[in-house]
UniProtKB/TrEMBL annotation:
The protein's name in its UniProt record: Uncharacterized protein
Matching InterPro entries: SGNH_hydro_sf
Highest taxon of source: Bacteria
Entry GO MF terms: hydrolase activity, acting on ester bonds
Gene3D superfamilies with a match to the protein in the record: SGNH hydrolase
Length: 312
């Protein structure tokens, strides 16, 4: 029989400090990240939140710096997140750290224009190739990628992850597990957010004249490359000790329909999931996190569907 699962309790740093006594929590986690984690009320009203869909068999508390001021735009923004740095490197001890990072960096890299200030942008500073630079058709969607740009992006991700681990290991949380997720594969489409941001991939692929028939495969390739990069980091335990990466690309998410501009499939807009999408990924990721926290062998579990308690 499956044990009872409850959503973790999410608090802002201010709420955490005000409450004081948190002995009821079996596990206490520190979280930060991009809009997939952002849980300020205005953000929740706009789209779902992966963090609040995590479920555990023991009372679990997460103090989230995501959305406390602004969600991370880039991984390097962690340096300018005083709440996160103070809580990670101060006197507080945590059972683990949850991070949602890398997705905004991938989108930003895809958005770098081919021409800037009248001058061509070097290939090592962008992810996409202009039509005159495309490779042979036999290369598939790889013909549109700048491998030089991907090498730059990979170096940036690795350097930032090492910095995060150095922050962890510079205080009382030395060696504590860090949990990261990969991202689901979005459908490039004209579906922006309620705050007028976005769409994100859709205009980038149009600007580079990439055929619409290849958009879905392009999106999958980019997100899969990021997942492979993050998993390779986690596998390198010498440089990235106790880093755990969950491959969200393996969770069956209902794709949005091409050309739609609103909620479609498991998606709220182009790059943010709705509640059913968040539940599917969070349910599977929770299993991995709890296995590490409890020291039990991980039993793979991929949800067949359904929705979380919070509705869709």
């Amino acid at each position: 029989m499956e044990s009872r699962l409850d959503h973790l309790v999410c608090l802002t740093p201010d709420d955490y400090k005000r409450r004081g006594d948190h002995r009821a929590a079996h596990w206490k986690l520190l979280a930060h990240g991009d809009s997939w984690f952002s849980f300020a009320s205005a953000k929740v009203d706009a789209h779902a939140n992966l963090l609040e869909e995590l479920m555990f068999s023991q009372p679990t508390l997460a103090v989230s710096c995501a959305g406390h001021h602004n969600a991370l735009r880039r991984m390097v923004d962690l340096e300018g997140s005083p709440d996160f740095v103070e809580l990670l490197d101060g006197e507080e001890t945590w059972d683990g750290i949850l991070l949602s990072v890398g997705g905004n960096d991938l989108v930003s890299a895809a958005q770098v224009p081919a021409i800037h200030a009248g001058e061509p942008t070097p290939l090592h500073l962008r992810l996409l190739r202009r039509q005159t630079e495309w490779g042979a058709p036999g290369a598939g969607v790889g013909r549109y990628f700048s491998e030089e740009g991907w090498a730059t992006y990979s170096q940036y991700i690795r350097a930032n992850l090492k910095h995060i681990l150095s922050l962890r290991d510079d205080g009382p949380n030395q060696g504590k597990p860090i949990f990261m997720h990969c991202y689901a594969v979005p459908t490039p489409r004209p579906a922006g957010a309620e705050d007028a941001s976005g769409p994100w991939l859709y205009p980038a692929l149009k600007a580079y004249a990439i055929p619409q028939a290849d958009w879905a495969a392009m999106s999958r390739s980019m997100v899969s490359k990021l997942a492979a990069l993050l998993k390779a980091c986690a596998a390198d335990t010498a440089q990235f000790p106790n880093l755990h990466v969950f491959d969200s690309t393996q969770v069956p998410i209902a794709p949005a329909a091409l050309g739609t501009s609103g909620i479609s499939g498991d998606w709220h807009n182009e790059i943010h999931l709705n509640h059913s999408g968040c539940f599917k990924i969070a349910r599977a990721w929770s299993t991995q996190i709890e296995a590490v926290l409890s020291g039990k062998p991980l039993v793979a579990e991929v949800p067949k569907g359904g929705r979380g308690k919070r509705g869709g």
